[in-house]
Amino acid sequence: DTAYKIYDDAAKMIPLQKIEELSVLSHPNIVRPQSILLNANNLPIGYSMQLLKDTSPLVSLFAKSFKQRNHISNKNTVDLVQKLHALVAYVHSKKGTLIIDLNELNFLTDGQFKEVYGIDVNSYQTPSFPATVIMDSIRDRHCNNKFNHNTDWFSFGILAFQMLIGVHPYKGNHPDFENVPKDERLNARMMKNISVLHKGTTIPKICEPFTTIPPALYKWFTYIFEEGGRRSPPTDYEIITHIIPALVKEITGTDLFDINEMFQFDEEIGRVCSNGTTILVVGQR
Fold it and tell me: Which residues are CB-neighbours of 120 under 8 A, at least 6 positions away?
């Protein structure tokens, strides 16, 4: 299937040379400009591209409720992060090509949440055409506007962290920034390398625990978000599936309260409804 992008103003048409330079991106999951569309005067006014159906924007995966409704496990999410990693690495394998605006709206997942697709590819940087836009939330504050592979990887890290945990790595609250205006806190935290991994930072309870992050990736997150280092992410996405059981103090009744176990479930309780009859919904339904 094919989709078409047509410009009302032919002057805004992406340069044909850039379309040629983007043609090296032959990956099936990169939705790049393909055939040129001409008007009656034989002037280029648009292009064709791959049509994707039944997709969701990558940002959907930031919400725990979306994952629960669609039965997306942590393993599924880690696999999608790995697919995104592979897509960025593929772009970098083409000399002089960078994504730059590597934000959550420029990627889609398929209906089965097995694949990642890159869109808005006409905004990528190519050898002859520097990129001109970048979303502020994924912009590396320490690159002095000199973008390279590492700045793309920093942006990738922002997305990967939100996919896994559900919060931007420089959001949440930290006591040292309480007096900074809210609209300036993200920038201030990024400049100071004070992420949600920093001691004293609090994040919403709805977020996933940090233990859902593969250990090698967690170490890399700490390096780029907390230490201000820059390097490509690890290829080890192994998840720790064996957890040492914690010692749990048994709660029993007292002379003030009578506590008895009524039910036990293997899955997390999603919600409780009561209108004469109590209904508990467990798992990801």
Answer: 101, 105, 106
Contacts of 137 (CB under 8 A, 6+ apart): 103, 158, 168, 186
Contacts of residue 123, defined as CB under 8 A and 6 or more positions apart, other chains included, come to 100, 101, 106, 131, 132, 133
Tens digits of residue pLDDT in 55-84:
999 999 999 999 999 999 999 999 999 999
Question: Quick check: pTM over 0.90?
Answer: no
Integer Cα distance of 181 and 188 in angstroms: 10
- 110: closest CA among 118, 102, 100? 118
Neighbours of 82 (CB within 10 A): 17
**Residue 174, both tokens:** 């930290």
pLDDT in tens, 248-268: 445 455 665 555 566 665 555
pLDDT tens-digit series, residues 179-209: 999 999 999 999 999 999 999 999 999 999 9
Return d(Cα 145, Cα 131) in angstroms, integer: 11
Nearest C-alpha neighbor of 25 from the set 86, 76, 93, 109: 93
DSSP 267: S
For the CA atoms of 132, 134, 139, 143, the dihedral, rounded to the nearest 10 degrees, stands at -10
In contact, 58 and 109? CB cutoff 8 Å: yes
Q: Which two tokens stand for residue 191?
A: 């400049």
